[in-house]
Specification:
With about 425 residues, the protein is an alpha/beta fold. It contains 14 helices and 15 strands. It folds into two domains: about 230 residues, Type I PLP-dependent aspartate aminotransferase-like (Major domain) (Aspartate Aminotransferase, domain 2); about 130 residues, Alpha-Beta Complex (Aspartate Aminotransferase, domain 1), CATH 3.90.1150. The radius of gyration is 23 Å and the shape is flat.
Amino acid sequence: MSNDNLVQSTLDQLRPLIDQYFQASKGDNHSGPWSISLSTPTFGADEVMEVLDSLLSTEVTMGRKVKEFEERFAEYIGVRHAIMVNSGSSANLLALTMLTDPQLEGRIKPGDEIITPAVTWASTVYPIIQVGAIPVLVDVELETVNMGLAQLEAALTPLTRGIMLVHLLGKPCPMDTIMEFARAHNLFVIEDCCEAHGAEFGNRRVGSFGHLGTYSFYFSHHITTIEGGMIVTNDDDLAESARALRAFGWVRDLKNRQTLALENPKIDDRFLFVSLGFNVRPTEIQGAFGMHQLGKLEGFIEARQANARYWTERLRPFEKYFLLPVEQEGARHAWLFYPLIVRPDAPFARSEVVQFLESKGVETRPVMAGNMAEQPVMRHFAYRSDGALTNARFIMRNGLLFGTHHGIGPQEREALVDYIKEFVAIHTASRK
């Protein structure tokens, strides 16, 4: 029996057992002690079988499954190119690095400024520092937890070279005005979409507006490849740069590999290096996950939207105490988590809300990294804060998040409303 036939025979024997396992565990998606968790597994038998196929065939390093996922993801986002890497953080690092290429017109140079929101995740800001540029942290709007045109206009200086925007929590930034601003001032735009899979602005998916877009497929995100990330672009040259950078700067995955080989005939083109690079390649196991996860994404987003809209409607009686999220018109929100911000005049603190919800089995977390300007790591690096970052500071102290994922059904989402009702009743009664 050939090896391919042996692999298929083994998979055929395993498939009923794998199906049986996932069917038996269906609905048991909660992690740890939480009855309402921040995230839940998004994979099942199809992903496991695809991984087993890779393991049994021993085709486990970056190959055809990664390429297939890249092609499908590019089509889904509506861009020409998608380049997979080992994490969303690596995607951000490569995106900034390729914009420093000496051959790139108007490239980012050491000391140039990159505008980015103060409320974000650390790996949005770190790559700016790592390429020698200066992060300019700007405030966000409370209603959207994103930065907008007003913040960009206030932060602009002659040193501004780019915008590293973030579609935080799956809420799209106002891409029409941001792109108009960027074109007027000849700025690079990188869209950090690591929390915004499938989010749209004006019926166009985020990640397709800027020079580059980045995504994360970490375990707790909308879809997962366990770890993993993606860079998307419509620029052929930037796509080639990303392919070289993710794997040592060699030519193996480049479209013009033959041309480069002819220019360097004395070097084996399997080991021909034309640029600096990293080793942030994904594995076939990650590609195997992605191939099946992408087909589930729309259903996951619909579940998240249903949960978020339910909570916004049911929690309106408590707007006196909480600032509820707003969905902007003409945009599609992907709702990584649901943000709840305690108003400054509420008769209770954020910490009390967190303690009460977690005592009921609701897993919570802060709003990402909070205000990055207050994180102690920033003391060691050059950066600029534009203004007092009043909203960012407020969100860091008063904001919390809980899950919106597909594992939260009618019973759980109603229970969460009941918990908040109970909490408000206790804390308002005690102050009468």
